[in-house]
Structures are given as structure tokens and as C-alpha cells.
Design brief:
108 residues; alpha+beta; globular
């Protein structure tokens, strides 16, 4: 991901946190997915394979988009908590992130 796009995405995640539209932590994210509450799940690239598989399967079952981006340190700095999984609970923030050129390119 281009550095500028990455920084803009992380800034947007910080704003989502301030707006209380971001759910973080594995347990809370899983509960929100099961309630079909979220719009996009972001898991860090250095998250454990077991956790990624569990979250990805839940997202596929409940038809919630899943991307694997960033490092845990980058995400943690942006949202103010040490987390490796977040769920965006707002269509506007989700739409803005997915529209960023290059955001989905790193998910491949």
C-alpha cells in the first residue's frame, strides 16, 4: 500500500474511533459480527493464523467484508489501543476506506 494511502486510512480509523464507530478486540468483534452489526473487519497482517481463520470464516458466513491490512503497531497507534482486529460500524467510514485507491490492493 502506498504510504500516503496507508496514512490516510489510519487517520480515518482514528476518526472512527473518536466517533465511537469502531469496535476492537477479538471477542467484541466476533459478537458484533454475529449480530450482523458491522460493515468491515480489518485484521492486521501479523495477527495469528488461527485468529485470522476464525474471523474470516465468521465474516464469510455473515457476509461482512474482511481485509487484512497494516501491522499491529500501526493500527494500535492509530486507534489508541493495542489491538489487531477492528470492526467498523459505520457505512460512511467503510465506504471512504474502500474507495481509497490502493487500500484493497494489499489485501491480495
Amino acid at each position: 500500500m502506498e504510504e500516503l494511502v496507508k496514512q490516510r486510512a489510519l487517520n480515518l480509523l482514528g476518526m472512527a474511533t473518536s466517533a465511537r464507530k469502531l469496535i476492537s478486540g477479538e471477542g467484541q468483534v466476533i459478537q458484533s459480527i454475529q449480530r450482523q452489526k458491522g460493515n468491515l473487519v480489518i485484521c492486521t497482517k501479523d495477527c495469528s493464523a488461527n485468529t485470522v481463520k476464525k474471523i474470516k470464516n465468521k465474516c464469510e458466513y455473515y457476509e461482512i467484508p474482511f481485509v487484512q491490512q497494516f501491522e499491529t503497531d500501526e493500527l494500535s497507534l492509530a486507534i489508541g489501543k493495542r489491538r489487531s482486529i477492528v470492526l467498523i460500524d459505520d457505512r460512511g467510514f467503510t465506504k471512504s476506506l474502500l474507495k481509497m485507491k490502493g487500500f484493497n490492493d494489499m489485501n491480495e
